[in-house]
Structure formats: structure tokens, C-alpha cells
Design a protein that fits this description.
This protein is α/β, with parallel strands linked by helices. It has a single domain, classed as Glycerol-3-phosphate (1)-acyltransferase. It has six helices and nine strands. A seven-stranded mixed beta sheet has the order 1-9-6-2-5-3-4, sandwiched between helices. Helix 1 packs across helix 3. 41% of the residues are buried. InterPro entries: DUF374. It holds the Pfam family DUF374. This is DUF374 domain-containing protein.
Length: 246
């Protein structure tokens, strides 16, 4: 079995202070607008567990939003790859719990990547009334195409999936697989909350319909955020078979 690649210790040290500092700098110098604030209010007042879903490219500014969900534990699912180590290091100061793993890649069925353990951790958290943040196209894409895991987690837990989009007026669009949206300081930002999606059907056809519904909702709220901030919306990657959990 191949050993997991380890992140550079110096880079991890830098991320440990630079990551939180940059996130807070953007947060403190950004004038925030929330579309769908009534939905956010309902989440804050409720006692049931729920899933917040957002595309991988908008991950950075979802981190400080954790402080919005006061009174309950908040979980992120991140990969066991060294990229996940770096993400965990950068955001560990924001009172976020981590479930390490990722959805199974059909091309690498022999590598579970801790996905089953992470899934069980998140399932228990939701049933305990806690909150879970997921990037349904992570950790490796395709961009803005929803994997099946989020729909399966919602069905088994009974928790609703709330799609959230974010964009910043001043931002750099990175040349990465997800076209990462890097917000810059001293600007305006926009969060868009969509209505919760319940996944109640069973069987392949029903689950595929739920997956597509979540994908469409996420692209919708992200497009609204982009357009509100004056950006051309990023197009999803070309459609191809999206890996499915079993």
C-alpha cells in the first residue's frame, strides 16, 4: 500500500498563521450582503441537523460563516490527501471539526480513502442535531458537478441540504480545476442561501434525481452570487459520468 504523501512542514507552519490571518482580513474588510437571510435565520433558530453545501471553489469564505451557526458543532469533510492536511491547518482556528475522507472514486475502487468512516461520523453528527459543510464536487471534481454522497447522507440522516453560494466583488479567479474564487480584502461580498432540499426517495433513479436537484440548486445560488458581484458566472465542467457512492 502506498504511503500517503505528507505536506511540507514549513508550508504547514505558514498556513497555520497565514491562512487564518488572511481569512480574517477578508472577513473584517468586506461589506457583507446576504440573499436569503430568512433561510439563514431559520437555520440559526432550528434544532435539527442540516447540511450546508457549497462548491469547492467557494470554500475559503464559508469558513468564517461557521461563527454564524453558534450553539452547535460544525463539521467539514475534507480529504485524507495532503491537500486536506493543508486545508485543515489553515482553518483549524475557526472551531471546525473535521471528518477525514472523500467520496469513492469509481476508477480507484480499491482505495476507500476513509470515506466510510467519515460518512458514519457525519451521519451521527446530523442525527445529533449538528451541522455539516460539504463541497459536493470535491476534492478533485469535475467542477460544479455534484457527487452522489451528499444526497445519500441527506437521505439516511433525514437532514435537509441547503445550497449556499458566495462571491466577492474584488477576487482573483485561479487557474485550478475548480476555478477557485479567491476573494481580496477591502471589497463587497455576497452570500446566497437557497431553500433546503429533502432527499426522501430510494433507488438509483430517485437518488440521481436528488443529486441533479442539488447540483442545479448549487449552480443557481452560485450564479446569483457571481452576477450580484458583477462577475461572469463560472460554467460547470463538461458533463461526464459523475462517480457514485455504493
Amino acid at each position: 500500500m502506498a504511503k500517503k504523501a505528507k505536506a511540507n512542514p514549513f508550508l504547514m507552519w505558514v498556513l497555520g498563521w497565514a491562512g487564518p490571518a488572511y481569512i480574517n482580513l477578508v472577513k473584517w474588510t468586506t461589506k457583507r450582503e446576504v440573499i436569503g437571510e430568512d433561510i439563514l435565520d431559520r437555520l440559526q433558530r432550528g434544532e435539527e441537523g442540516y447540511i450546508v453545501a457549497f462548491w469547492h471553489s467557494r470554500l475559503l469564505m464559508m469558513v468564517p460563516m461557521r461563527q454564524t451557526y453558534e450553539g452547535r458543532r460544525f463539521w467539514f469533510m475534507i480529504s485524507e490527501h495532503r491537500d486536506g492536511d493543508m486545508i485543515a491547518r489553515a482553518v483549524e482556528h475557526f472551531d471546525i471539526s473535521f471528518a477525514r475522507g472523500s467520496t469513492m472514486n469509481e476508477r480507484k475502487k480499491d482505495k476507500k480513502k476513509g470515506g466510510a468512516d467519515a460518512f458514519r461520523t457525519l451521519l451521527k453528527a446530523l442525527k445529533d442535531g449538528e451541522a455539516v459543510g460539504l463541497t459536493p464536487d470535491g476534492p478533485r471534481g469535475p467542477r460544479q458537478r455534484c457527487h452522489a454522497g451528499v444526497a445519500q447522507l441527506a437521505r439516511l440522516s433525514g437532514a435537509k441540504v441547503y445550497p449556499v453560494g458566495y462571491a466577492s466583488k474584488r477576487a482573483k479567479l485561479l487557474d485550478s480545476w475548480d476555478r477557485f474564487h479567491l476573494p481580496l480584502p477591502f471589497t463587497k461580498g455576497c452570500y446566497v442561501f437557497g431553500e433546503g432540499i429533502s432527499v426522501t426517495g430510494d433507488g438509483p433513479e430517485a437518488m440521481e434525481a436528488s443529486r441533479l436537484e442539488i447540483e442545479a440548486a448549487l449552480n443557481h445560488v452560485t450564479r446569483i452570487a457571481d452576477e450580484t458581484m458583477g462577475h461572469e458566472p463560472v460554467a460547470p465542467a463538461e458533463q461526464r459520468a459523475v462517480r457514485q457512492d455504493r
